[in-house]
Amino acid sequence: MKINILIGAMALLAGSVFAADSSLKDDVKAAAKKLGDNYTWKGSVENAGGGGFGAGPSEGKTASGTTWLSIKRRDTTSEAVLTGSKGALKTQDGWQSLSDAAKDDGGGGFNPTRFLAMRLQSYKLPAAEAADLADKAKELKKDGDAISGDLTTEGAKSLLAFRPPGGGDGPEISNPKGSVKFWLKDGALTKYEFNVQGTVSFGGNDREVNRTTTMEIKEVGSTKVEVPEEAKKKLT
Q1: Strand 86-91 to strand 76-83: parallel, antiparallel, or no bridges (unpaired)?
Q2: What is the CATH number of the domain that holds 42?
Q3: CA dist., res. 199 & res. 209, Å (int)
Q4: Residue 236 lies inside a defined structural domain of this protein
Q5: Which candidate, 45, 140, 171, 203, has a CA 20 to 30 Å from the CA of 161?
Q6: In this structure, are residues 197 and 40 in contact, taking their beta carbons and an 8 Å threshold?
Q7: Taken in order 152, 56, 36, 144, is the CA torsion positive or negative?
Q8: Residue 234 falls within a domain, yes or no?
Q9: Of the candidates 196, 233, 220, which has an alpha carbon nearest to the alpha carbon of residue 127?
Q10: Is residue 197 in some structural domain?
Q11: What residue ranges in 101-156 does DSSP mark as E strands?
């Protein structure tokens, strides 16, 4: 009898833990959804030890289906506009559609503009990224005024991978791990942060990556996006 009672209590406890975890994931996704498609954000990326492959600091605005982005990498700041499945990127030669900027110029070697254009073609807005990160977490728990948890192995691996500029297979990822943290206020997402670590092997070279990305959300419901005329012509 005592054994049956103990087993029942353990099952009840496990069920309550699972329910709590599911509830917190639902809370995060609901908080991300509450942002709608009108908000501003500022992102930062820290690559501990110099590892990387990720983009640098970024700023963005989205309103009524149109998104403006500013992304800095080293000493270069790139500007982009996305709307639906279309996009435009400001290059040294002026504004180009993402499809044109992503084309192989035949010059060989690494082309940062092309690489960025290819990444922007699958860009996730912060609200969508936050919901995706919640799904990639093993479980979430209360952590002071935040909600946090470790990423699954596959979740961390997917965040470390990237599409090579020339197509073909991506890098080999080993020992992937990571964590994620969310901050909510009045039922809406205000900030999230995730860290990914692992060994990325590409072109015969191994690079140890320890990357932390932080996104802060503001101006929910009051954001306005102005698209340059030259960019508009490349969105048609």
Answers
A1: antiparallel
A2: 2.50.20
A3: 6
A4: no
A5: 140
A6: no
A7: positive
A8: no
A9: 220
A10: yes
A11: 141-143, 146-150
Assign 24 to helix, strand or coil: helix
Q: What's the rounded Cα separation, in Å, for the pair 208 and 143?
A: 28
- pTM of the prediction? 0.84
Residue 106 within a domain: no
Three-class SS state of 125: coil
For residue 112, the tally of other CB atoms under 10 A from its CB is: 12
Please list the residues that pair with 188 across neighbouring strands.
185
Task: Name the residue range of residue 75's domain.
Answer: 2-84+124-225
- What b/e readout covers 30-63, taking b as 16+ CB neighbours within 10 angstroms? ebbebbeebbbbebebeeeeebbebbbebebbbb
| Number of domains observed in the structure of the chain | 1
Among 208, 107, 215, residue whose Cα is nearest residue 165: 107
